[in-house]
Automatic annotation (TrEMBL):
Compartment(s): Cytoplasm
Family: Belongs to the MurB family.
NCBIfam families xref list: murB (TIGR00179), PRK13905.1 (NF010480)
Species annotation: Oceanobacillus bengalensis
HAMAP family: MurB (MF_00037)
Sorted UniProt keywords: Cell cycle, Cell division, Cell shape, Cell wall biogenesis/degradation, Cytoplasm, FAD, Flavoprotein, NADP, Oxidoreductase, Peptidoglycan synthesis
Entry cofactors: FAD
Enzyme Commission code: 1.3.1.98
Official protein name in the record: UDP-N-acetylenolpyruvoylglucosamine reductase
Function: Cell wall formation.
GO biological process: cell division; cell wall organization; peptidoglycan biosynthetic process; regulation of cell shape
Reaction(s) catalysed by this chain's protein: UDP-N-acetyl-alpha-D-muramate + NADP(+) = UDP-N-acetyl-3-O-(1-carboxyvinyl)-alpha-D-glucosamine + NADPH + H(+)
Length: 306
């Protein structure tokens, strides 16, 4: 890409030079280890910086993408134009009695561990979810019978216009693996969770059990985007894929996991095109065999290679 020095200088003025990278490979920042480059990869350190970046993008008509921590995401091989924002440095976690307040860049796993330290129960389900707090709100993340909407009380967001808002949890329309955050163009900066007092040993025992179940069943030894598909009503996605004889199916370096059919893993330097092609092949095969439409849980963003 040809660097627009005026845009670069304005970004660097907001966040400092060390927080702006040009033509940055996004495969370094996604769990799948896929994707082309970002024109400008920006890592702000304060809420005010995020607000100013949004306002700059609007004023200069520069495309703007929020990456999250790249755990439930596929970036296409052509990369992403304009500004890619990663909020990983907004990772503070604070507790106040039964409330836990976490920055959107904090890992939800770390929030659950902080809750454990304070003998607070309610976030045990999140101990194996690899995403950020912002990503967890974006998709109302959940596992093992729990989900974000069970414990979220409020969120601080930046709007498309660069306005700072504090919203109650019910204003986010949290439902199974979705919220109104993408439709409204909100950027989550902070989340507040209300938890219950519990016993440390009991909370830890449950977290240890859930961690063991996750590690024994999921293919964590390979890069992946996590669970690819939402659970279809009345079915399990992994079981449908397994019963379609698709475990081990491979396109290029992407493979339907032999360990858990609900996962697609990058076993041999896959391209995003190969990974996405395999997702579509799985959807087509399951639809033909069982008449069930598998809906993606993973987001796909960016541009194809020209």
């Amino acid at each position: 890409m040809a660097v627009n020095h005026e845009i670069y200088d304005k970004l660097a003025k907001i966040v400092s030079v060390e927080n702006v990278m040009v033509d940055e490979p996004l495969k370094k920042h996604t769990y799948t280890q896929l994707g082309g480059n970002a024109d400008y990869y920006v890592t702000p350190e304060t809420y005010e910086q995020v607000r100013q970046i949004v306002q700059l993008a609007n004023k200069e008509s520069v495309p703007f993408t929020l990456l999250g921590n790249g755990s439930n995401l596929i970036v296409k091989d052509g990369g992403i134009r304009g500004i890619v924002l990663n909020l990983q440095k907004l990772d503070a976690i604070k507790t106040d009695e039964n409330l836990v307040v976490a920055g959107s860049g904090a890992r939800i796993i770390d929030v659950s561990r902080e809750a454990l330290k304070e003998h607070l129960s309610g976030l045990e389900f999140a101990c194996g979810i690899p995403g950020s707090v912002g990503g967890a709100l974006y998709m109302n993340a959940g596992a093992y019978g729990g989900e974000v909407k069970d414990v979220l009380t409020s969120a601080v967001v930046v709007t498309r216009d660069g306005e700072l808002l504090t919203l109650a949890a019910d204003e986010l329309d949290l439902a199974y693996r979705k919220s109104n955050i993408p439709d409204n163009g909100y950027i989550v900066l902070e989340a507040e969770f209300s938890l219950k007092n519990g016993k440390y040993d009991e909370i830890k025992a449950l977290m240890d059990d859930l961690t063991h179940r996750r590690e024994s069943k999921q293919p964590l030894e390979y890069p992946s985007c996590g669970s690819v598909f939402k659970r279809p009503p009345g079915y399990f996605a992994g079981k449908l894929i397994q019963d379609s004889d698709l475990q081990g199916k491979q396109i290029g370096g992407a493979q339907v996991s032999l360990k858990h059919a609900g996962f697609i893993v990058n076993i041999d330097d896959a391209t995003a095109e190969e990974y996405i092609s395999l997702i579509r092949f799985v959807q087509k095969t399951v639809k033909e065999k069982f008449g069930v439409k598998l809906e993606r849980e993973v987001r796909i963003i960016g541009e194809d290679l020209e």
